[in-house]
Amino acid sequence: MTDAALPIPANDLRQAVEARLKKRHAQEMRFRLYGRLAIIVALTFLVLLIGRIVHQGYTTFIDYRIGVPVYLDPARIDKADPTGANYDLMVSEAVLKKLGEQDDEFGRKAGKVAEIMSNDLGFQLLAKVRTDPSLIGQTVTVTGPLKSDAALYFKGEIRRAIPQGERKLDDQQLDWLDKLKASGAVSSGFNFGFLTRSDSTEPEQAGVLGAIVGSAMMLLVTALLAVPIGVLAATYLEEFAPKNRWTDLIEVNINNLAAVPSIVYGLLGLAVFINWLAVPRSSPLVGGLVLALMALPTVIIATRSALKAVPPSIREAALGIGASRTQTVFHHVLPLAMPGVMTGSILSLAHALGETAPLLMIGMVSFVPGVPAGFTGAATVLPVQVFIWENASERGFHERTAAAIIVLLVFMIVMNLAAILVRRRFERRW
């Protein structure tokens, strides 16, 4: 007997190899198919999400306005104190006159007209009288938005087919709106007011300017804190720190901090910055501080990866011609790693911009009608503005919620596009 294996016939060996080859090819084809299916599913959900948001919010950018000539009756306006007059009633009566309607003794028709006219028209009249009191006794034309429910009727969100008791506008108000539009008093166009106004209790007057400015100021604070500190910390850990258990412990903790839920940073900011350091609540400064804590681990990790990508030969060459360790790092290694550093920093800032939970914890959910006056003044930001409008009871705010999300997405797409351009512009291949 012998332990030597019996020779395998050539035909059997060939069949076994072909069978294994066929199996590998089938596995590869299945893997490619699963990958394509995963991409298709992801793109489908992305298209559905963006399509739903755009479909719900694009009508916000269409504005319906009305121009009304209003007689400023001297008997109803006191020149010494013009603020005491009821300008909204004057506008309603002017619209009734334009419609050829007579009000009853209780003023019910004027009240119903007031429900489809924005009080912005009354404020405009008051501003004109304050600026030029000689207008009293004359007819002045003011142009302003319709009430949000009236605009929703023209946008098809409120339909006559719905029973009168189940909609906010009755048949008479819808008839008036049709008549005003047919007469040319109502016009439509791009809603610039949505981008140039701040928050308001009236949906038709609410805009995102205050939230955009607040987001930009908060992001500036975040960038000024997170990027320098993160880059310097990463440079020290990667280039100068000794490799021992303490640096390993720090590295593990930084990686863990990057995965901590964002609301935890909000609780930390509430305890440290507001309760202990007395930083003003709901300000861009405290918001930027909290988001800087959240973005810091990501900046450190991205910077370390960029530094590792620089070939060791660069360091060796610099040291070889007599450069010190500090000169090698700051004159050669860090500049070469800067494209990766900038890309990681921009992406971490874009991620921080979309955070809502930590900002709610530090009181940025309050109603702020104007543009923030400074870094310590009250402000709101785009994600929180979306949160506030979504929880409002007025239907017009729901439309504006989707529009604010579109503005936020555009803001983030621009930042991501900047990161891609920076990477491609300064990318180096070793």
- Mean pLDDT over the residues: 88
What pattern of helices and strands is seen along the backbone? HEHHHEHHEHHHHHHHHHH
Please estimate the helix content.
55-70%
Q: Tally the helices: what do you get?
A: 16
Number-wise, the strands total 3
Class derived from helix and strand content: mainly alpha
Strand order of the largest sheet: 2-1-3
Radius of gyration from the alpha-carbon trace, in angstroms: 32 Å
- What distance lies between the first and last C-alpha atoms, to the nearest angstrom? 61 Å
Largest sheet: 3 strands, antiparallel
| Unreliable residue runs | none
Large-scale geometry: elongated
Percent of residues in beta strands?
A: 5-15%
List the helices and strands and how they pair.
Blueprint (H helix, E strand, L loop, with lengths): L9 H48 L4 E10 L15 H13 L8 H7 L5 H12 L7 E7 L2 H7 L16 H12 L3 E5 L2 H4 L12 H32 L4 H13 L4 H15 L7 H25 L3 H9 L4 H29 L3 H5 L20 H9 L4 H32 L4
Helix pairs in contact: 1-16, 2-3, 2-4, 8-11, 8-13, 10-11, 11-13, 12-13, 13-16, 15-16
Concise summary:
This protein is mainly alpha-helical. The protein is built from 16 helices and three strands.
